[in-house]
Amino acid sequence: MNNKTRNRPPFLSALCILTFIGSTFGFIGYFIASLFFDKTSELIIKYSSWHSVDAISPIYFTVLMVLSALSLTGAIRIWKFHRDGFFLYSISQIVILFLPVIWIDWNAFSAVNAIFTGVFILGYGWNWKRLR
Any residues with CB less than 8 A from the CB of 59 and at least 6 apart, and which? Predict the structure, then answer.
């Protein structure tokens, strides 16, 4: 069965489209944050409980930008029914989830991000049989 005759379930389409949107915004946001790190630092200090951004650098945002690009690539592969996209997406999202913990500390862990990451990975996994 080729891609033209394969039907994509609406749930899989929705997951992919939401990932396209989220990963694209993530890529652009992290790109801007790394490019304008000084301004980003000011905003972090102004609008968060942080008093210093010594723990992060432009490299931190660049790594997150690359991981967002890999996540997007994984979703594109899943859209095309390729199983390797599931692994690429899942690994990049798990690293995005835990990179702040490793780079900064456990206070940087996001429970909301963990919930969304889990839901999306489970959703893509639920559609595993449709991927080749």
Answer: 34
Measured between alpha carbons, how far is 35 from 55 in angstroms, rounded to an integer? 17
3-7, 57-61, 74-78: least confidently modelled range: 3-7
Centre a 10 Å sphere on the Cβ of residue 40 and count the other Cβ atoms it contains: 19
3-state secondary structure the chain: CCCCCCCCCHHHHHHHHHHHHHHHHHHHHHHHHHHCHHHHHHHHHHHCCCCCCCCCCHHHHHHHHHHHHHHHHHHHHHHCCCHHHHHHHHHHHHHHHHHHHHHCCHHHCCHHHHHHHHHHHHHHHHCHHHCC
Which two tokens mark 75?
């979703």
- Indicate whether 4 pLDDT > 90: no
Please tell me the distance from the alpha carbon of residue 112 to that of residue 126, in angstroms, as a whole number. Answer: 21
pTM: 0.90
